C-alpha cells in the first residue's frame, strides 16, 4: 500500500497528521469546498436533509462537523431537480459545512433482503448464519445495470443504477459522494455474495466513468460481508481504482471482534493516504474499535433514533473516559431527579439548563420538546466522544 500520508485532488484533500504506534488509528484532516473535517469524526445522519427535531443552527451547536444525507429518500421526495434548482443541498438545508450523500445502495438491501429477512448490519446470532438465501430478494429486481423497485411513497416503479446514482448525487451537490453498490443480506449464500461483490466492482467502475463534477470527492465501496477473503479481494480491487476515499459497506459479522477484524483487514489492503468511512456503524462502544482498526469517519443513526425513544447516552467515569452508560429517561423513577442533569459531566446546553425530571415528564407526555432535548444531548455526547478519541490518538493512548 502507498506510504504517502497526503492525498489531494481538485478541491478535496486528506492529510494524516499522526499515526498511532499502538493501533491502526490515525489523526487527520479532510479538506472539502465547505470546510475541514478533523478525523476521526462521527457523522450524524440527516436522512431527508434534516436531523429530526433540530434545526441546522442547533446541529452546529452540538459540534457536528459533517452530515450524511440519504440519496434514495431525497431522490424519491422532494427530488434532486428541485434541490438543484434551490442551489443544491447546502443552500436548500442552510448548512454551510461539509456534506456527504450515500449512494442509495443500502436502500437496495433494505427494500430487498432486509425486508425479506428482517436483518440489519450485524448478524443477531450464530443461528442467523444458518439461514441462507441464494435467490434474488423478492421486493425488487436487480439487473446488470441497476435496481428496479417501487417507490415507498406512491408505488410508482423506479430505477436506480450507478449512472443514475451519480447523476442524482451530482445534482444534490454534497462534498463527498459514494459509488452505487449492492449491499447483500448477511444471510446471503457464498454464491450470491460472490455475484454481488462482482456487481459492486463493475458498478464502481461505471460510477467513476459517470462522474463529471470535479468539485465532489467520490468514495468507492468495499463489500464482501463477513468473509475475510472476499473483503480483502474487494479492498484490493476497489483500492486500485481512482477513488478519492473508501466506504466500508454491508455487514461486519455478528460480534464486535468480527467487526474489528473485518475493518482492520480492509484498512490494510487500501491506499494509506486516502480516507476511510465506515457506513452505518457507530455506537459509543464502537468508536475506539472502529478507529483502532483504521476507520477515519463513521455514521450511525443511534444518537437520534434512540433519543426519540427516550434513551440517553451518558459518560461513565471521568469526562475524558470513553466508557458509556444509557438512561431510559422516560422511566418514571427519573421524575424525582429535579436538580440533576442528564449527565453531570456533560457541557451541552441541555445538561446546563434542564433537569432529568423535566425531560422525563416531557418524554412521558410524548412532547416533541422532550425528543428535541434528548436528541441535542445525544449528538453533543457523540461528538464530544469523537473529540476525546482524537485527543487519545494525539496523546499516544489509542
UniProtKB/TrEMBL annotation:
It is an enzyme of class 2 (transferase). The keyword Transmembrane does not apply. Zn(2+) binds at residues 346, 348, 351, 377. It catalyses: 7-aminomethyl-7-carbaguanine + guanosine(34) in tRNA = 7-aminomethyl-7-carbaguanosine(34) in tRNA + guanine. Pathway: tRNA modification; tRNA-queuosine biosynthesis. Substrate binds at residues 102-106, 181, 223, 250. One of its GO terms (biological process) is tRNA queuosine(34) biosynthetic process. Keywords: Glycosyltransferase, Metal-binding, Queuosine biosynthesis, Transferase, tRNA processing, Zinc. Residues 280-286 are annotated as: RNA binding. The active site is at residues 102, 299. Catalyzes the base-exchange of a guanine (G) residue with the queuine precursor 7-aminomethyl-7-deazaguanine (PreQ1) at position 34 (anticodon wobble position) in tRNAs with GU(N) anticodons (tRNA-Asp, -Asn, -His and -Tyr). Catalysis occurs through a double-displacement mechanism. The nucleophile active site attacks the C1' of nucleotide 34 to detach the guanine base from the RNA, forming a covalent enzyme-RNA intermediate. The proton acceptor active site deprotonates the incoming PreQ1, allowing a nucleophilic attack on the C1' of the ribose to form the product. This is Queuine tRNA-ribosyltransferase. The gene is tgt.
